[in-house]
Design brief:
heterodimer, A: mainly alpha, Cytochrome Bc1 Complex, Chain C, Helix Hairpins, 3 domains, two-stranded antiparallel sheet, 17 helices, 2 strands, B: alpha+beta, four-stranded antiparallel beta sheet, three-stranded antiparallel beta sheet, 4 helices, 10 strands
């Protein structure tokens, strides 16, 4: 936050700002001091905001043409694709937009994991982020049901049936969610309503996420606390705005490639067959972004425990700031953590791969090992690593390694001592 | 010194209690509106003509939006279903209890794992096989292998006459 109270230059601006300090807020956002060493992994916050707005705008337009009824939903989607002006474009942007949203959020999350952005004092930012991620998964699942294709129907059946694993009340909850004895019209209409609601909940949480970010300020690639504003910071505008803008353009190229050249590659052909409650597709798989969790669900042979394992795999992330006992944030100075980090990345990718494969034989074995390792990473490796790992010296400021020294002699001496140990 | 309960404490408690009842009375309709409505419940039973089903064949009918398998079992299948020892089963049920008339097996064609429709005459036990997560059922619809916790459910049904089954 700026040191000085902002005073608008124009008389009208001052009059307005005294009554509603929007200009003060705008000034805070443009002047917001950002670490000057932020790399391109830090541009995904802006990219995600773009994704959310894209989904809301295209979704709003689609809702003008879509009919949430079991007898008409499938036809109305085909109507959008064939008859509505640019309907194909808007729907493909929305459908691929979901995938792009998840692609960006996974990079954003793994950025946090690498640079320790979840650690004190940024735990609340992180937890709000996890809630946003959960809501994104809910929105994506609900949205996938709306075209009322085979994958929509059976995906909805499988996911809602997860609740039946709850002892005693499970079956009652499932009937309540369905509004009947199977996934049917009442299910579709309520899913549409909730799918419309969630993006606005996410929008509200994004405001809190950014608000909570602006209290301590951004983490940075070397993960040190910096003085703000100082030689280590640059104002958000124009520096970060331009950098985020450039990254967004690069991202949009990838986005456009999917929309215009392979709009269906991330979907399933089965979803172009209308929902049929009598025939289950031979191979039900969720969208790619849910595959690692699907693999965890299937790797446990017990129904209730499988559901618990899958939910824990997500919720364990909320406890991460306390599971990681290391005081050093950035993996740059954590030689061992850096290796475990990449093993975790590989582990999640493997889980995603086996999640797309049939749950049998070697795939099942790999899924079980990868699931076990996933939990091991968070519950055993991270807590122990914080105590055992010998970290490398952390610079005192962002400029220090470049200028070759710090004006703070006492601190330099301390650092040398550390080196000589 | 013990804190004395005052008249005002009683008023607070009484107000909270009445408030909680009021909130509950408003919230419950908002929750219950999602439960199956009268039109859904009205479609709760179906009559099926099974005269055209030959031994060794299964038909699938829709009941309450869910598939119901009606299989006319052959003598070998009945013998096989009856021969299974109860201790081999994950969810022990006698075949006699599942098929009152052993020739006819009427059951919900819904995998008890996560609700997919199992495939007929597939799997390691020549009964049903669920393609979603690999549950194997025997010719009595009992779970033998895979993640499903229980046997496929037997709905309430009765023979109205020799050729008609009423489900529900």
């Amino acid at each position: 936050m700026s040191e000085h109270e902002y005073i608008p230059k124009s008389k009208v601006g001052k009059w307005f700002n005294d009554r509603l300090p929007l200009l003060t807020l705008a000034n805070h956002l443009t002047d917001y001091p950002t670490p000057k060493n932020l790399n391109y992994w830090w541009t995904f916050g802006g990219i995600l905001t773009f994704c959310l707005i894209t989904q809301i705008v295209t979704g709003l337009v689609l809702a003008m043409h879509y009919i949430a009824h079991a007898d008409m939903a499938f036809q109305s989607v085909e109507h959008i694709m064939r008859d509505v002006n640019y309907g194909w474009l808007i729907r493909y942007i929305h459908a691929n937009g979901a995938s792009m949203f998840f692609l960006a959020v996974y990079i954003h999350i793994f950025r946090s994991l690498f640079y320790g952005s979840y650690k004190s004092p940024r735990e609340i930012i992180w937890i709000i982020g996890i809630i946003i991620y959960l809501l994104m998964m809910a929105a994506a699942f609900l949205g996938y049901v709306l075209p009322w294709g085979q994958m929509s129907f059976w995906g909805a059946t499988v996911i809602t049936n997860l609740f039946s694993a709850i002892p005693l009340v499970g079956e009652g909850i499932v009937t309540w969610l369905w509004g009947g004895y199977s996934v049917d019209n009442p299910t579709l209409t309520r899913f549409f309503t909730l799918h419309y609601l969630i993006p606005f909940l996410i929008l509200g949480l994004v405001v809190l996420h950014i608000w909570a970010l602006h209290v301590p300020g951004n983490n940075n690639p070397i993960g040190i606390d910096i003085k703000k504003p100082s030689k280590d910071t640059v104002p958000f505008h124009p520096y970060i705005v331009i950098k985020d803008g450039f990254a967004l353009l690069m991202f949009m190229i990838v986005f456009a490639f999917f929309v215009f050249y392979t709009p269906n590659i991330l979907g399933h052909a089965d979803n172009y067959i209308e929902a049929n409650p009598l025939v289950t597709p031979a191979h039900i798989v969720p969208e790619w972004y849910l595959l690692p969790f699907y693999a965890i669900l299937r790797s446990v042979p017990d129904k209730l425990l499988g559901v618990i394992a899958m939910l824990s795999a997500i919720l364990i992330l909320a406890a991460l700031p306390w599971l990681d006992t290391s005081k050093i944030r950035s993996a740059v100075f954590r030689p061992l953590y850096k290796q475990f980090y990449w093993i975790l990345v590989a582990d999640v990718l493997i889980l995603g791969y086996v999640g797309a494969m049939p749950a049998e034989g070697l795939y099942l074995l790999i899924a079980r090992i990868a699931t076990a390792y996933y939990f091991l990473h968070f519950l055993v490796v991270l807590p122990i690593l914080g105590f055992k790992e010998r970290t490398t010296p952390v610079p005192l400021s962002i400029t220090e390694p470049i200028l070759g020294g710090s004006p703070n002699l006492a601190a330099v001496k301390k650092k040398d001592d550390f080196k000589n140990q | 010194m013990e804190k004395k309960t005052k008249r005002r404490d009683f008023l607070f408690t009484a107000t909270y209690a009445v408030g909680a009842v009021g909130v509950g009375a408003v919230v419950w309709p908002m929750i219950d509106q999602m439960n199956p409505d009268a039109s859904v419940k009205a479609l709760a039973s179906t009559e099926v003509d099974v005269s055209a089903v030959d031994p060794g064949k299964t038909i699938t009918v829709l009941w309450r939006g869910k598939p119901v398998f009606i299989r006319r079992r052959t003598q070998e299948e009945i013998a096989e279903a009856k021969s299974v020892k109860l201790e081999e089963l994950k969810h022990p049920e006698k075949d006699e209890d599942r098929a009152k008339n052993p020739e006819w097996l009427v059951m919900l064609g819904v995998c008890t794992h996560l609700g997919c429709v199992p495939l007929d005459q597939k799997g390691d036990y020549n009964g049903w096989f669920c393609p979603c997560h690999g549950s194997h059922y025997d010719i009595s619809g009992r779970i033998r292998k895979g993640p499903a916790p229980t046997n496929m459910e037997i709905p309430e049904y009765k023979f109205v006459d020799a050729n008609t089954i009423k489900i529900g």
